[in-house]
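Note to self: the last two entries modelled the partners one at a time, which told us nothing about the interface. This time every component goes in together.
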Amino acid sequence: MPELPEVETIRRVLEPQLKGKLIRQVRLSRPEIISAPTAEEFCRRAEGERICSLGRRGKFLQIELHSGAEIVLHLRMSGCLLLAPKEYPLAKHTHAIFELEEGEELRFSDVRRFGRLWLLAPGQEDCTGRQKLGLEPFDPQLTPEYLQQIWGKKKRPIKDCMLDQQAVAGIGNIYSDEILFRAGIRPDCLGCNLEEEQRQRLAQMIPQTLAYFIEKNAISPQEYLDGGGRDYRNTPFLQVYGHSAQPCPRCGSLLERKVIAGRSSVFCPACQNFLGGS
DNA sequence: CCAACCCCCTGAACGC
DNA sequence: TGCGTTCAGGGGGTTG
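The predicted structure of the combined assembly is written out below.
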């Protein structure tokens, strides 16, 4: 159930371990998780490749290969990527196994089967959806002016705006709540009703909050393996998400839950007092 | 262009 | 205990 901090955590854990490793064989038990090319072609082209590096763009994970090709993954709601010795118990719902050298396997599992993989040939036009993504949250171009440009006219709740990957890439339901809490803005405030001060707060809190949770996620390879690839450890540091009807950590008022744009949102009705629009 | 809805899928939690 | 309902942190597609 990863958002940007979790995808970045996976990237940081796996990159040093995967760098330089040869993909000897790919086995798929659910070929439909491969979006492009065909499953057969995906396996054929991945086999014999060597892993250069791991990248991330928004919530997409990128396995960059020596030939210049890349394997792109989106974990969606329940996808999981784990590097394990081949003797290690296989997680349920493991749909793809990349057999590496020295008895290691890179395994992709996904209970809900929403996750997808692509393999792009060197120079091939991107068909993953990444090309539509907005700025990375850590991009210095993410300024109050940029936020004005993308959200200034939106008659949609800011919460909804923040989930739109074409504006800022990588924010999901959890961290949008956390960011809005830190910025003191109600999630149902319309984008067009934000004022300069709120845009400044957001431009600051978006990278700051995500960086904080990436840091809190930091995990060793062994811990990551023991946790089955989903031992994200920053959840104790969430201030509002999952804390509906509990006291606000800042002011003690009871946190409220409200469905906004079809997504459950938790906020403090006292601290998050900017609604705008008057 | 936009909003509102639908879909994909399983499992956990909750209500009766 | 069992059964039905609701919900879950994702995104794409269609319709009006």
